[in-house]
Design brief:
about 160 residues, about 10% strand, three-stranded antiparallel sheet, DNA-binding, homodimer
Chain lengths: ~160, ~160
DNA sequence: CAACAATAGTTGTTTAAACAGTAAACAGCC
DNA sequence: GGCTGTTTACTGTTTAAACAACTATTGTTG
């Protein structure tokens, strides 16, 4: 099992355990997300559009407003507009204006969108299960706990 | 300390520990890298250009070929060309053709590039130290070890 | 040594992210 | 009820990532 130092081709060891942990987090995220990106791509989606579709499926028939989608995706509203543009153009979602507040745009998933997600559910689950199958449940729980702690630092702006 | 489930606003718990770990890895990478991105931005750099400059500084006066830079950055060669374009335009790096192989382009860092990096060294180190300062060294080492293991799965293509 | 393949890098084009600025609808106030 | 400010979403523009196609040089081989 290669260390990160070897992978990166660095001669000297890391300056600190925190720096090593940080770089390991970034690298692992990149490595593990790549197969998912391929999967999304083969379904004509990106990670962003996939996540948006998931939000819309969870929202059901009533749909979600653009700013709600943006909040959940941690994306800006202008980006949501174009993201929904793409979904709508692909027939996976549709917009409709609210009666009560005519500024608001309610976005909901279409049957085609549900079908597209349904096609992905099993492969995604399989990938999740296979990707970390070599780790024990207690290791995974420890990992999650440490990661939650890692990002809960006092804001250092 | 909020759980990821609460942060995402999800009602049901995760389907599996591996899925939870995966999402925690992505989320933590995103949260922890944001302050660095701001730092780079304030110096007129991106994460990519910063990493490229680091590679060039480590390479010293002899510099590096484009494909070497690409391999270390895990980037494609066409992207390296434009990345070096930006560095050169900003006066932070320079190109020169090899005498021995006139196809090869050797890229090296300039004095301005070294100065730019030097300005960032201390803030970067401070951020690394402060960001995970609330975790013990043994926690960080455990985290790193688990992350290395997480991404060393048998290829699942 | 001519022809073909391989290598190093660049250019073109499409796509998406980022963010400022704008338009329309609503809310509160005098 | 009109004016100001706020909210909701859209549009414009810049910038970068992804990837195919291309040029120039070098290596190989019959």
């Amino acid at each position: 099992m290669p260390t990160l130092a070897q992978e990166i081709g660095k001669q000297r060891p890391f300056e600190s355990p925190s720096q090593e942990a940080y770089l390991n987090i970034l690298r692992t995220a990149s490595v593990l997300s790549a197969p998912f990106a391929h999967l999304f791509d083969s379904a004509g989606l990106s990670e962003a559009t996939y996540n948006a579709l998931r939000i819309l499926r969870a929202a059901g028939a009533q749909g979600r407003l653009c700013n709600e989608i943006g909040a959940q995706l941690v994306a800006r509203v202008p980006d949501v507009t174009r993201l929904v543009d793409r979904l709508e153009k692909a027939g996976l979602a549709r917009r409709r204006r609210e009666g009560s507040d005519r500024r608001a745009v309610r976005v909901s998933i279409t049957a085609a969108g549900l079908a597209r997600l349904a096609d992905l559910d099993q492969p995604i689950t399989d990938l999740h299960n296979s990707q970390l199958a070599h780790m024990s449940e207690s290791q995974l729980n420890t990992l999650s706990k440490l990661l939650v702690k890692a990002r809960s630092a006092p804001a250092a702006h």
